[in-house]
Give the backbone structure.
Amino acid sequence: MEYQTLPRTDLKVSRICLGCWQMNDNKANASWEAQTYETSKACVDKCLELGINFFDTAEGYAGSEEVLGKCLQGRRQDAVIASKFGFREGPHTPPYTAQQIDEAVTRSLTKLQTTYIDLLQAHFPSFIQNTEEAITELKRQVSLGRIKSFGVCNFGPKNLKTLLDMDVIPVSNQICYNLLWRSVEPEILPICKDKDIAVLAYSPLQQGLLSGQYMTVDDVPLGRRRGKLFSPESCNLGRHGTPGCEKELFEALRSIKDVCAKYNTSMSKASLSWVMQQVNQPIVIVGCRTAEQVEDNYNVMKISDAFVKELTDATEALKDKVGSALDQWASPDRCE
């Protein structure tokens, strides 16, 4: 397993991180099917066995913090936990005051059954009422030992510049990045590279679209059609208010499948390798439904520069259609 030390911390983390959104204590939601506690624990067990020590959760992932905390009892010291504040009242949650950030940390510590969180992140910039007060509060949480460090999630160029103008450099920026969603490349990745901000790439398989299982709209589970890659007609759960990119999406998927067949490599392995071999060396956050999937994702291979380029070329038209949109789920964009 390859490891990275997060900037300006002593946190040595695996470059594969287990995304824990799907840990829902056997209660299905719009994004994930039900996952039993036993399955979640088997995934955590397999991670620690393989050397994957990084786990990402959030107060907005219903049930996730509680399940992860239970899974890690007796071995908390072997894990690096990243969590997020936001969504306490759903997607329309008002911005957090400093006091509400403190309350969110308390809730998360209780749910995770731990005395500290290694990396606390703002889930979206929209969950911060006053940036200066929020930073002061996060620094206070560090001084109290309740969190070890803080980063951000879904912060676009404007949001990052606000922090940098205050001489605040977050440890990390967790943002969606994969072959089908490359809007971070023009501005965000260069800022993170220049300022030594770790990139935590979530949805590296675009909620399973890059697994090779879904080659038509009808193949894709309804809850996974909510984003801007899909048209509103394909999913009545969507709230993004854009026409979508379905033509370019499925053309890209067919091209990726052909390229992977040429190199005799599965789409999922190639897609994970593609993200990990980008210039910022992102850490990839991968959700898994079984312990077997954890092991499969663990075995990421290095692919050739030619293979990387062909995958990149296969998704250029989709990248152009997506444009500068960073927020897949809502309009106006919450990731400015």
